[in-house]
Write a structure and sequence with these properties.
Length: 356
């Protein structure tokens, strides 16, 4: 896979864990081998780079908007604690899984966040609780700015005991989103940001087990305090037949876009009517199923152009994703990514030449 573009900036502190020039990301279901501790800082103009540089997460993010994209990520981790901040400017369908062996929580940082999380509309006063399985499924709009905290189940259990709260881990059973008091959430948001700033300024702190241990204890306490004072949104509502059909169609469009080129084909494969698809995709993503399919195919073509290990004709890549009119393909590609297919391929070719 191609290395990050020259328009992006990346720093991974080599004294903790060196980031190789090439970022080869496994499939969503593949295990991730990670060495700790590590610190990652990266800015990028291609959403695929988040999956390439992100450690211990398995992510498959897809850009849905036209007009380009920009994002940044900071990630600091020890085996028992991970914290980070992710900023994305683009309409993004987010899928994947969180670090294994840890419970993960996300805290919005901006007031007017526009995010749909596992069927819930999110606001700044909410904490998102990832399921124990670690599944990630959400749709973020143009401005996404989130703090991420992952701690061990043992640290959460210890926090419950320390604070004298009964119920053990049942406190988080079935939770997907909690709406918190600003005073409690503000403390969690503030302390998470402070720890990130501290390790950015002084990365050797990640090797200090006393420091990381205190940080894990403090954040676990703040998470538990926020949860017990919150009103909770559970995810046990029954799904209608139409919703199940739409979710099946989304999986097909996401995973088999190379074979499904039209809404009519998607309707036939999923069993959902065209009308149901239009309504479901508009409610879920804010775009039509036609626009969603086009975004998936354009993204797939771009990934192929970026990862080609040998000279490849743009026409062959375009045709493999169902684009037959090259002028229209180039226009749609440029509108989506703010560059032409030839520019993407040229950048990849230059990267391959430098590597050789």
């Amino acid at each position: 896979m191609a290395s990050p573009s020259s328009n992006s900036r990346s720093l991974v502190d080599s004294s903790y864990q060196h980031e190789e020039e090439q970022h080869q990301k496994p499939a969503i279901d593949a295990p991730i081998m990670t060495e700790y501790p590590f610190l990652v800082r990266h800015e990028f103009n291609n959403i695929d780079e988040l999956g390439e540089v992100g450690r211990s997460w398995n992510v498959d993010f897809r850009q849905l908007n036209r007009g380009g994209f920009h994002g940044s990520v900071i990630q600091a981790a020890t085996p028992e604690l991970q914290i980070g901040r992710v900023r994305l400017h683009g309409v993004i369908h987010q899928r994947g899984s969180t670090p294994k062996g840890l419970r993960t929580f996300a805290i919005p940082t901006i007031r007017d966040i526009d995010l749909r999380w596992r069927g819930h509309e999110v606001n700044r006063d909410c904490v998102l609780v990832f399921p124990k399985s670690g599944e990630l499924e959400s749709i973020s709009q143009l401005d996404f700015d989130m703090l991420i905290v992952s701690v061990t189940e043992d640290d959460l259990e210890a926090a419950l005991r320390r604070l004298g709260i009964p119920g053990s881990s049942a406190l988080m059973h079935g939770l997907e989103m909690v709406c918190c008091r600003e005073s409690k959430l503000g403390r969690l948001r503030r302390r998470t940001g402070e720890i990130l700033t501290e390790v950015e300024k002084d990365p050797p702190l990640l090797n200090d087990r006393d420091y990381s241990g205190r940080a894990a204890i403090k954040l676990s306490d703040l998470i538990v305090r926020a949860l017990v004072t919150a009103s909770c949104e559970h995810g046990h509502h029954r799904k209608s037949r139409q919703r199940r059909l739409v979710e099946h169609a989304i999986c097909l469009a996401h995973g088999d876009a190379q074979a499904i080129h039209s809404v009519a084909e998607l309707s036939k494969e999923s069993g959902a009517s065209v009308r149901t698809l239009r309504r479901g995709f508009q409610e879920r993503f804010g775009v039509s199923p036609k626009a969603y399919l086009l975004a998936q195919r354009l993204g797939g073509a771009r990934r192929d152009l970026r990862s080609a290990n040998q000279p490849q004709l743009i026409t062959d890549v375009a045709n493999s994703w169902g684009f037959w009119h090259m002028g229209q393909f180039a226009a749609d590609y440029r509108a989506m990514f703010q560059e032409l297919p030839s520019e993407t391929l040229r950048e990849n070719t230059e990267t391959q030449r430098r590597r050789d």
